[in-house]
Description:
With 71 residues, the protein is an alpha+beta fold. The protein is 39% helix and 14% strand. It is built from two helices and three strands. Strands 1-2-3 form a three-stranded antiparallel sheet. Strand 2 and strand 3 form a beta hairpin.
Amino acid sequence: MTRNEALAIAKTNYTAHRKAVIDHLFGRAATLDEASFGYRHGWYYVGNFTFDQDEITGQPYDHNQGGWAYL
């Protein structure tokens, strides 16, 4: 598997993971198994490759714009 193929899988996993998190937060899902999406400590793992949210979304983190992390 190439890095680009793994990135495509990570993007799919990211989208599914975000939906699962929202469903869990709004009570539509009883549990949230983040490992099933290849997610661990802010990284998405696909095979031997790892990707962060910046790389998956193509949007670099900018703490001046409110961002997605707590500072």
